[in-house]
C-alpha cells in the first residue's frame, strides 16, 4: 500500500508539472501582454505619445521582459515555495488576495455538490436496480433523464423562481445581506448552508442522473453474478447479500469517475453562478482573460486543474482500498 | 412416516422429487425447462445427472435450493421433499422465498458448488472471509472458532499452507485451488446433500481427477449425499452410484452407473457413450450426435429426442412420450423401442 501511495503521489506531481507548463503556455498565448494593455488604458485619450521604449519600460517594471522559461520558473517557484501566485495587475494587488475567498467558496460549492450527488445517486441507483422494471424504477429513470435534458441555467431559474415565490427566501449569492461581511460564526455557516442548497441541487442533478444510471447498471450486472448466487446458496440473508456483494462493487465506477464529476461541475458552475449571483471563480477567470491579467487567470486554471488531478489521486486510492484487484495490477 | 432409525437402516431417501415441472416467463413466451421429472437421492449416495447444455439438469437441481431467477415458475403439482437433519420432512416448494427455514437449508443442509470457481467467489473478499461467512451463518460459533473451522476445512480439501491461503483473494489461487476452496466453503457447514454442478468441467484432466478423488474421500468421511451434474459420461462412471440421463427437460434413462455405462438401452445414452474419446481407439472417428438440441421454445411433440434419433419410428416417437419400461429393479428406460418388446 505504501509503495502504491508513493507511486500515485509521484504520478500526481508529474501530472501537475506538465499541467503547470500547459497553463503557462496558455497564459502566454493571447497576442499582446499586460504592459501594452496598461499603457493603452493609462494614456489613451490623454494625447500622450507612447513609444516602443515606454512600453518596454512598463514591461520591465512588471518583469514581463524576461525570457519565458525564466518567468515560468519565477512564477512556479513562488507558488511552490511561498504559495504566492503572483501579482494581479488589474487589481494592483496580489493574486492571492483577489482569488482568496472565492476559491474557498468555489470549493465549498464543489464539495457540497459532490456530496449531494453521491448521497442521492448511490442509494437510489441501488434501489432502482433491486426494484428493476417496477414503477419506482421507471419514475427514477425519467426523473434522472430530466437532469440530463434540462439545461442548468433553466433549472437554476426555475428553482430561483420557486424559492423566492413560495419560500420567500433570498437566493442570490451565498450569504444573506446581514451575514455577508460578518465574521465567521455558526449562524453564518448555517446561512451559507441554506444558500448552498439550490446551487448544489442545480449542479448535482445532471451528475446525479449520470451516476445513478451507472450505479443501477453495475448493480444489475453484479446482482446476477454467480458469486451472489453462491452466497445465497450459503444461506446468507437477502439484504446482507445485496450490501456485501453487489452494492460494494457498484460503488467502484462512481469512485473512479469522481474527477470527471468535478470537471463537469467546474464547467457548469460559471453559468449557474451567473444566474444565481454566486461569487465564484468562473467569472473572474473570464474577466482576467479579457484584461490579459495573466497571473490571475493562471492561478485559477492551476488551482482548478489541481483539484481535478487531486480528486483523481483520491479516487485511485479509494479504489485500491475498495477493490483488492487494483493493487495487484498496479503494484 | 416411518421412524428415523428405520429409514436409516433401509437406505432411505434424503430427497424426493416428484413431477418436477419448471418453466420460465420470457419475452418470447413461456419456456418449459424441466418437464415433469422424478428422482430421489439416498443418504450417502451419489446421483449422477448427465445431459447436454440446455437439458435442464442445472435448473432441476438449483430448484432444490430455490435458487432459480425470479421469472421461473415451479408448477403447483411439483413436489420436492427433503429430510432435514432433525428428521423433519419439508416440502421445499412450499417454503417462503428467502425465509428463515429455506436459509437454514441453504448451505446448512444442502450446499452447491459450481462449474466456474472463479466467478463463484467474490473477487473483493478473501477466501477466508467467504468461508467464515458461511460458517457463522449456520453454526453457533465465535469468529475465531469459525476461522479455525475454515482453516481446518482448507487443510482437509488439500490446500497447502491453509493459514496463508485463508488471507488470499480468489484471483491469487490457481483454478484447481479455487475449486478446492469452493468445496471447502460448501463442506464447512457439514451439509447432508452436496449439489456439484459440473465441478470439474473447467479444470485440467489431471486436476479433474484430483478433485474427483477428493470429493469421493470427503463423501466417505462426512457421509453426505451428492448430486453430480455433468455432460461427461466418463466422469459419471467414476463417481456415481445411480445415473439419470436428461434431455430437453425429460429423463430418458435411469439406472445404476454400471447399467448406464455398460447396458444402456436408450439411443440417446448410446450416442453419448459413442461420443466419449477412448484411448484404445486411436484413428477411429468419434461419432457426434447429428443436429442440435432443439430450442425449448419449440419442444418437439412425443419423445424429445426423436428429431435426432437414429432409430426414430415416425408416427410413434413424434406423437407421444413413451412410458417408462422397467428393465431391472434399478434400470428404467423411456423409449418405444423397448416398450414394444414388453407389450
Outline the structure in words:
The complex is a heterodimer of chains A (331) and B (343). By secondary structure, chain A is mostly helical. Chain A folds into two domains: 2-82, no CATH class; 97-326, MetI-like (MetI-like fold, Orthogonal Bundle). Helices cover 79% and strands 1% of the residues of chain A. In chain A, strands 1-2 form a two-stranded antiparallel ribbon. By secondary structure, chain B is an alpha/beta fold. In chain B, β1 and β2 form a beta hairpin. Chain A binds chain B through residues 224-238, 244-245, 248-249, 322-325, 328, and chain B through 65, 67, 69, 98, 103-108, 111-112, 114, 116, 119-125, 130, 133-134, 137-138, 169, 171-172, 182, 185, 189.
Mean pLDDT of chain B: 88
What's the level 1 CATH class of the largest domain in chain A? Mainly Alpha
Write out the strand line-up for the largest beta sheet of chain B, numbering strands in chain order. Answer: 7-8-9-3-10-11-13-12
In terms of quaternary structure, the protein is heterodimer
Approximate strand percentage of chain B: 15-25%
Greatest chain-chain interface? A-B, 24 and 32 residues
Distance between the termini of chain B: 35 Å
Query: CATH top level of chain B?
Result: Alpha Beta
CATH architecture of the largest domain in chain A: Orthogonal Bundle
Q: What is the approximate shape of chain B? A: globular
Amino acid at each position: 500500500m505504501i509503495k502504491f501511495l508513493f507511486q500515485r503521489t509521484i504520478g500526481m506531481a508529474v501530472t501537475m508539472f506538465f499541467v503547470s507548463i500547459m497553463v503557462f503556455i496558455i497564459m502566454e498565448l493571447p497576442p499582446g501582454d499586460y504592459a501594452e494593455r496598461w499603457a493603452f488604458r493609462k494614456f489613451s485619450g490623454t494625447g500622450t505619445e507612447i513609444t516602443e521604449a515606454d512600453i518596454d519600460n512598463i514591461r520591465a517594471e512588471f518583469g514581463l521582459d524576461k525570457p519565458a522559461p525564466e518567468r515560468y520558473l519565477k512564477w512556479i517557484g513562488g507558488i511552490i515555495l511561498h504559495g504566492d501566485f503572483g501579482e494581479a495587475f488589474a487589481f494592483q494587488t496580489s493574486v492571492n488576495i483577489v482569488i482568496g475567498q472565492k476559491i474557498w467558496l468555489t470549493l465549498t460549492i464543489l464539495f457540497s455538490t459532490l456530496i449531494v450527488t453521491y448521497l442521492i445517486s448511490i442509494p437510489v441507483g441501488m434501489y432502482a436496480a433491486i426494484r428493476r422494471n417496477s414503477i419506482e424504477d421507471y419514475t427514477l429513470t425519467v426523473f434522472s433523464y430530466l437532469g440530463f435534458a434540462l439545461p442548468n441555467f433553466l433549472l437554476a431559474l426555475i428553482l430561483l423562481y420557486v424559492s423566492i415565490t413560495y419560500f420567500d427566501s433570498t437566493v442570490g449569492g451565498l450569504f444573506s445581506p446581514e451575514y455577508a461581511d460578518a465574521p465567521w460564526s455558526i449562524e453564518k455557516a448555517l446561512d451559507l448552508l441554506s444558500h448552498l442548497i439550490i446551487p448544489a441541487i442545480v449542479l448535482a442533478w445532471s451528475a446525479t442522473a449520470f451516476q445513478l444510471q451507472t450505479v443501477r447498471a453495475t448493480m444489475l450486472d453484479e446482482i446476477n453474478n454467480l458469486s451472489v448466487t453462491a452466497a445465497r446458496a450459503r444461506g446468507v440473508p437477502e439484504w446482507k447479500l445485496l450490501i456485501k456483494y453487489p452494492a460494494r462493487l457498484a460503488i467502484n465506477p462512481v469512485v473512479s469517475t469522481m474527477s470527471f464529476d468535478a470537471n463537469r461541475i467546474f464547467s457548469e458552475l460559471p453559468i449557474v453562478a451567473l444566474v444565481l449571483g454566486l461569487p465564484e471563480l468562473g467569472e473572474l477567470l473570464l474577466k482576467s482573460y479579457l484584461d490579459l491579467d495573466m497571473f490571475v487567470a493562471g492561478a485559477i486554471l492551476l488551482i482548478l486543474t489541481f483539484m481535478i488531478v487531486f480528486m483523481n489521486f483520491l479516487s485511485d486510492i479509494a479504489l485500491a482500498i475498495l477493490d483488492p484487484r487494483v493493487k495487484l495490477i498496479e503494484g | 412416516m416411518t421412524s428415523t432409525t428405520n429409514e436409516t437402516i433401509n437406505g432411505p431417501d434424503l430427497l424426493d422429487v416428484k413431477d418436477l415441472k419448471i418453466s420460465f416467463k420470457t419475452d418470447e413466451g413461456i419456456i418449459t425447462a424441466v418437464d415433469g421429472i422424478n428422482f430421489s437421492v439416498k443418504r450417502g449416495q451419489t446421483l449422477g445427472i448427465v445431459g447436454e447444455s440446455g437439458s435442464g439438469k442445472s435448473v432441476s437441481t438449483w430448484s432444490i435450493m430455490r435458487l432459480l431467477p425470479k421469472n421461473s415458475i415451479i408448477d403447483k403439482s411439483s413436489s420436492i421433499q427433503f429430510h432435514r437433519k432433525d428428521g423433519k420432512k419439508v416440502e421445499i416448494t412450499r417454503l417462503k422465498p428467502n425465509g428463515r427455514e429455506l436459509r437454514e437449508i441453504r448451505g446448512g443442509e444442502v450446499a452447491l458448488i459450481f462449474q466456474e470457481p472463479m466467478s463463484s467467489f467474490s473477487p473483493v473478499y478473501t477466501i477466508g472471509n467467504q468461508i467464515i461467512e458461511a460458517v457463522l451463518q449456520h453454526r453457533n460459533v465465535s469468529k475465531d472458532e469459525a476461522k479455525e473451522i475454515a482453516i481446518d476445512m482448507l487443510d482437509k480439501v488439500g490446500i497447502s499452507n491453509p493459514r496463508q491461503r485463508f488471507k488470499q483473494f480468489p484471483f491469487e489461487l490457481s483454478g484447481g485451488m479455487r475449486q478446492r476452496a469452493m468445496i471447502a466453503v460448501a463442506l464447512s457447514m457439514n451439509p447432508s446433500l452436496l449439489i456439484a454442478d459440473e465441478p470439474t468441467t473447467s479444470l485440467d484432466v489431471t486436476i479433474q481427477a484430483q478433485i474427483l478423488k477428493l470429493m469421493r474421500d470427503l463423501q466417505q468421511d462426512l457421509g453426505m449425499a451428492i448430486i453430480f451434474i455433468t455432460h461427461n459420461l466418463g466422469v459419471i462412471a467414476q463417481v456415481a452410484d445411480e445415473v439419470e440421463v436428461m434431455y430437453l427437460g425429460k429423463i430418458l434413462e435411469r439406472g445404476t452407473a454400471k447399467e448406464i455405462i455398460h447396458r444402456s438401452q436408450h439411443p440417446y445414452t448410446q450416442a453419448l457413450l459413442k461420443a466419449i474419446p477412448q484411448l484404445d481407439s486411436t484413428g477411429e472417428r468419434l461419432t457426434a450426435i447429428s443436429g442440435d438440441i432443439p430450442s425449448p421454445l419449440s419442444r418437439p411433440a412425443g419423445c424429445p429426442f426423436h428429431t435426432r434419433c437414429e432409430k426414430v419410428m415416425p408416427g410413434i416417437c413424434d406423437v407421444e412420450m413413451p412410458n417408462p419400461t422397467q428393465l431391472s429393479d434399478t434400470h428404467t428406460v423411456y423409449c418405444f423401442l423397448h416398450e414394444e418388446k414388453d407389450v
